[in-house]
Amino acid sequence: MPRSAHRSHRAVGLGAVVLLALSACSPSGSSSGPGAQDVSGTVTVFAAASLKESFTELGRRFEKEHPGVRVTFNFSGSDSLAAGINNGAPADVFAAASARTMKLVTDEGHTAGSPRTFVRNRLQIATEPGNPHRIDSLRDLSAPGRKVVLCDRTVPCGAAARTALTAAGVELTPVSYEQDVKSALTKVELKEADAAVVYRTDVRAAGDKVEGVEFPESAEAVNDYPIARLENAPNPSGATAFVELVRSEEGREVLGEAGFLKP
Amino acid sequence: MTTGAETPRKARPRPPGRGVPLALLAPALVGLAFLLVPLLALLLRAPWRSLPEQLTSPEVWEALRLSLFCATAATALSLVVGVPLAWLLARTDFPGRGLLRALVTLPLVLPPVVGGVALLLALGRNGVVGQWLDAWFGVTLPFTTAGVVLAETFVAMPFLVISVEGTLRAADPRFEEAAATLGASRFTAFRRVTLPLIAPGIAAGAVLAWARALGEFGATITFAGNFPGRTQTMPLAVYLALQNDPAAAIALSLVLLAVSIAVLAGLRDRWMRTV
């Protein structure tokens, strides 16, 4: 199998890097926990679209802490990422926006070890700046003539929105089911839709281009975000180190600033 | 494709030197396999047993009906404005015609998603033109079936224009000139002489545009969104089904494959013979 050949090749390279790091000066003060030295190459992270801003920042810090290492991201709807991983996409880390989408991958035995929840996220209603349509609750979304976009029900934000709408007893016909949370938000940013049900982190990341509206039923639909190293990770040590960074104090700080809740 | 020396055809004289050089044959076979294996895989992995059930579900029919309707409407729209545009490009001379021609063909090479974004900025509720459509007529195009038709037209019309323009250039302009000498106006000459003359080119262009519209994904999902029965065409349904129901995605893909083969079969007289 070419795969195992690759593996051993990489293992040799890795060993050389470790040796070099040990024999050379190797200042042990370079923080970021155990295994910092033996990380090399490229770390490929598949992450939910809602993690885009915070993970991009964490990737930048990771590259700074591990000179020469590159982190590449694939941000998309968690369900399409899961489908990609299950079809053999070469990824090291998977961070999903719901336990259900992570389960798609664990069920196929593609994760190494059990996934750990690292943050949680709540929904908000995103409206145009200044909330011109005076949207204050989920019920206001069902007013006649309101153009509302939701995430598709296969995507975590769509599933959570359905749960919240059911909890509120609101029947809502959106104008579109978008394929991930960012495309739902974009429709509001471009003023094509009056409102979208997205995560509060997305509202915060969009700055003053949208306005967020809290609603009580969001408490019924809080998403757990699990992260896991993948079984067939081309770069296992890189994967471990990245997951460690995400779950570290530093990682929590970055994610907290983006508006994510502690697990 | 692999006609070796053992099957000589009487009709055509063979070029000198027998057999196919390996240096050409090997990459040719790789290319052939590359094009055919994915289609074969679709057939091999098709959920044949559950297929009748998959294909009779109302969602599939809704998506298929919408796809056929929108592709046909987009083709009709392309014909109405595209044929005159092709005529303008082929039969008139004005400064900047070459540039205009290049711009017309731009959607051919533009990524469809970019086309969708451009359409949003132009025809969206807040777009350059769209805001007036909304203010004056109360018309908003995003998230509507009309939006799907426009997105597909944007992507498909250049195929028609290029095809018709090519046919026009190949057609002898002296027929039109003769008609004009006999007193026909330029429009009458176009309608009575040119149009019948280039009909096969128009038909081929229309089929191409229709096929392109049927497969359109990027511009559609960007501009018109995704709502079952209103804007969810077959390619969108395939893409979203692949996430959580791959069997349904394969079934939907088979339908599109069948339609494509039917189109190809319809065009075989035009293309297959020219080999």
Description:
The complex is a heterodimer of chains A (263) and B (275). With 263 residues, chain A is of the alpha/beta class. Chain A has 2 domains: 35-120 and 224-257, Periplasmic binding protein-like II (D-Maltodextrin-Binding Protein, domain 2, 3-Layer(aba) Sandwich); 123-221, D-Maltodextrin-Binding Protein, domain 2 (3-Layer(aba) Sandwich). Chain A has helices spanning 2-23, 52-65, 78-86, 99-107, 138-141, 156-168, 181-189, 200-205, 236-247, 249-257; strands at residues 42-48, 70-76, 93-95, 111-121, 123-127, 148-151, 176-178, 195-199, 211-213, 223-230. In chain A, the strands form 2 sheets. A 5-stranded mixed beta sheet of chain A has the order 2-1-3-10-4. In chain A, strands 7-6-8-5-9 form a 5-stranded mixed beta sheet. In chain A, helix 6 links the parallel strand 6 (148-151) and strand 7. Residues 1-36 of chain A have low confidence and may be disordered. By secondary structure, chain B is mainly alpha-helical. Chain B has 12 helices and no strands. Chain B has a domain at 55-109 and 143-274: MetI-like fold (Orthogonal Bundle).
Write the layout of secondary structure elements.
The complex is a heterodimer of chains A (263) and B (275).
Chain A: H1 2-23, E1 42-48, H2 52-65, E2 70-76, H3 78-86, E3 93-95, H4 99-107, E4 111-121, E5 123-127, H5 138-141, E6 148-151, H6 156-168, E7 176-178, H7 181-189, E8 195-199, H8 200-205, E9 211-213, E10 223-230, H9 236-247, H10 249-257
Parallel strand pairs in A: 1-2, 1-3, 6-7, 6-8
Antiparallel strand pairs in A: 3-10, 4-10, 5-8, 5-9
Helix pairs in contact in A: 2-10, 3-4, 9-10
Chain B: H1 22-44, H2 51-55, H3 58-91, H4 97-109, H5 112-123, H6 130-137, H7 145-170, H8 174-181, H9 186-215, H10 218-223, H11 234-244, H12 246-271
Helix pairs in contact in B: 3-7, 3-9, 4-7, 7-9, 8-9, 9-12, 11-12
Pfam families (chain B): BPD_transp_1
Transmembrane segments (chain B): 20-44, 64-90, 102-123, 135-164, 193-211, 247-267
Function (chain B): Part of the binding-protein-dependent transport system for molybdenum; probably responsible for the translocation of the substrate across the membrane.
